[in-house]
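tool_call: predict_structure(chain=1)
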Amino acid sequence: MLPWMRPDARPVRRGVQLLVGLVLYAASIAMLVDAGLGSMPWDVLTQGIVLRTDLSFGVVTLLTGLVVLACWIPLRQRPGVGTVANVIVISALVDPFLTLLDGLPDALGVRIALAASGIVLNGLATGLYVGARLGPGPRDGLMTGLVRRTGRSVRLVRTTIEVTVVSVGWLLGGTVGFATLAYALAIGPLVHLFLARLTVPVPVATEELVTV
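tool_result:
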């Protein structure tokens, strides 16, 4: 067992796990975007905004994250260190990852493999950063806040949010394709699988509310 994974080193483990998860999350976004076969729902919106502005993917990711965080205020959601790190780390790294992937061949087989790998990597990354229990990402917090305020189910609220952002992103020119559908179908089971193995046990009195 690695030193930072020992039960008596939980604060260190949680910090390392959060950071690794966010780095991998940024990489998974870049993989799906570069594959060009359909992106994750919020990234379809980001692509659409990028096409309509002179801003980079990372800058738009940062700005949309800040807007979503502002929506937490009327919902009385409280961000954690993981929430802030989510906005900063992912937006800072997604552009370098996109540049790194630009050199890959444009063959369909490569693009399919890249998209499939990106979906699996995103499930792992989500399990890592959510399992660290240091606060939900901005978009997850928006969902849980709306669930609490409206009394609607998680499934209904999440579906409504994602259909809305995909539709707006597609109208702006974002890429919707089979990988978008594959992500929607696969991400739930993948996150469930990884969360069961990566969630850090913490004392009940100090446990933060997290969600997928």
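agent: The mean pLDDT is 88. Proceeding to next step.
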